[in-house]
Automatic annotation (TrEMBL):
<dbReference type="GO" id="GO:0035252">
    <property type="term" value="F:UDP-xylosyltransferase activity"/>
</dbReference>
<feature type="transmembrane region" description="Helical">
    <location>
        <begin position="35"/>
        <end position="58"/>
    </location>
</feature>
<keyword id="KW-0961">Cell wall biogenesis/degradation</keyword>
<dbReference type="InterPro" id="IPR029044">
    <property type="entry name" value="Nucleotide-diphossugar_trans"/>
</dbReference>
<keyword id="KW-0812">Transmembrane</keyword>
<dbReference type="GO" id="GO:0000139">
    <property type="term" value="C:Golgi membrane"/>
</dbReference>
<dbReference type="Pfam" id="PF03407">
    <property type="entry name" value="Nucleotid_trans"/>
</dbReference>
<protein>
    <recommendedName>
        <fullName>Glycosyltransferase</fullName>
        <ecNumber>2.4.2.-</ecNumber>
    </recommendedName>
</protein>
<dbReference type="GO" id="GO:0010306">
    <property type="term" value="P:rhamnogalacturonan II biosynthetic process"/>
</dbReference>
<dbReference type="InterPro" id="IPR052636">
    <property type="entry name" value="UDP-D-xylose:L-fucose_XylT"/>
</dbReference>
<comment type="similarity">
    <text>Belongs to the glycosyltransferase 77 family.</text>
</comment>
<keyword id="KW-0472">Membrane</keyword>
<feature type="domain" description="Nucleotide-diphospho-sugar transferase">
    <location>
        <begin position="128"/>
        <end position="346"/>
    </location>
</feature>
<keyword id="KW-1133">Transmembrane helix</keyword>
<keyword id="KW-0808">Transferase</keyword>
<keyword id="KW-0328">Glycosyltransferase</keyword>
<dbReference type="InterPro" id="IPR005069">
    <property type="entry name" value="Nucl-diP-sugar_transferase"/>
</dbReference>
Length: 366
């Protein structure tokens, strides 16, 4: 029964009428009976308790004789909201977000939300934010993003401990990044093109014109050594450790057998090289081994260094930056660890956008 309908089903003057009223004069004793009757009348008591609840004096959780009524409770709305998004599937999310069968994907835990917002502002400026899907690694991120931007975050179980997932070199960080190839493979199996970015990146231009041809896997070099502007787009030769040094933080994949093979091999390499205290592994060496071991079976494409420079080049070689001015597309804030240090460097280069331009993000000011 709605509260409003109950409060109006009986006129108030009926409630206050003295049921013992007669034409004869009342004695002093009888004169007190309407007051006593009012205080103990079931209807009046109900109205009194209802008003206390409506105005927040009593908690709706307090049990009363009126247990058959269900009162409005904000917590129930939260539960409905959380249940809805906790059950949101990757298939539903990709179908909702994808444009022209293409997605831009990141994987985020709660401590990275400021970086997510910074990254989103830069993508919004290139008019590609509508196809961004945030893979939330914890429920706090899932709910915060979908409350601000419904449908653009999905959690692929199990959820991780957000506080242990952000320290580079930790087991939590390994657990976080090692899920990446499985997430991407699932999206490929659904038939979508997918661009993956780490959120410590900033877009300065539209990257899609650089994804030329119909290759299986596109990636960037993580070496800081300067390449000629017309460098080869083939997989570079292995380095001292017997493998290449390709960055696993900016990848574009087409839903081909070749791309799926690389994601499967990447997963296998991560399983073969798990994290330990002695060897604090991360996902990037395994990605390089996967590329090296499948190179003859997969069509690979190295993106332009000038357009997609590593942080070890962009932030540490001002001469090169000046010579390639106007060519930069996505800047990666790597070759440095720690939230505060990354933010400080972004600010020094005018790339920390959330303080002044939060309104340009689909999430607004978090």
């Amino acid at each position: 029964m709605k509260m409003s309908s109950f409060l109006h089903q009986r006129p108030l003057h009926n409630v206050l009428t003295d049921p013992y009223e007669s034409s004869s004069p009342k004695s002093s004793q009888n004169h007190q009976r309407p007051i006593i009757t009012f205080l103990f009348n079931r209807t009046s008591l109900f109205l009194f308790l209802t008003l206390l609840i409506v105005f927040g004096i009593l908690s709706p959780s307090i049990r009363t004789p009126l247990q058959g009524l269900v009162f409005f409770n904000n917590n129930s709305n939260d539960k409905v909201f959380e249940t809805k998004w906790a059950g949101y599937t990757l298939a539903e999310a990709t179908s909702f977000v994808a444009k022209n069968r293409t997605l831009i994907v990141c994987a985020v835990s709660e401590p990275y939300l400021p970086f997510l917002n910074n990254w989103l502002i830069s993508i919004s400026r290139q008019k590609h934010h509508a196809k961004v899907l945030v893979i939330a690694e914890d429920y706090a991120t899932l709910f915060k993003v979908n409350r601000k931007w419904p449908g653009h975050a999905v959690l692929i179980p199990p959820a991780l401990d957000s506080q242990s997932a952000h320290k580079f070199g930790s087991q939590g960080f390994f657990n976080f990044t090692s899920r990446r190839p499985r997430h991407l493979l699932q999206i490929l199996e659904l038939g979508y093109n997918v661009m993956y970015n780490d959120v410590d990146m900033v877009w300065l231009a539209d990257p899609f014109p650089y994804l030329q041809g119909e290759h299986d896997v596109y990636f960037t070099d993580d070496m800081a050594a300067v390449k000629p502007l017309n460098h080869s787009h083939d997989l570079p030769p292995p380095g001292k450790k017997g493998r290449t040094y390709i960055c696993s933080c900016m990848i574009y994949l087409r839903p081909t057998d070749g791309a799926k093979l690389v994601m499967k091999k990447w997963t296998e390499e991560l399983q073969a090289q798990p994290w330990s205290k002695a060897k604090k592994a991360n996902d990037q060496p395994a990605f390089n081994w996967a590329l090296n071991k499948t190179a003859g079976q997969v069509d690979l494409y190295l993106l332009s260094q000038a357009a997609f420079p590593t942080g070890g080049l962009y932030f540490k070689n001002p001469t090169w930056v000046k010579e390639t001015k106007g060519m930069h597309v996505i800047i990666h804030n790597n070759y440095i660890t720690g939230f505060e240090k990354k933010i400080k460097r972004f600010k020094e280069y005018g790339l920390w956008l959330v303080d002044d331009y939060a309104s340009e993000s689909p999430l607004g000011r978090l």
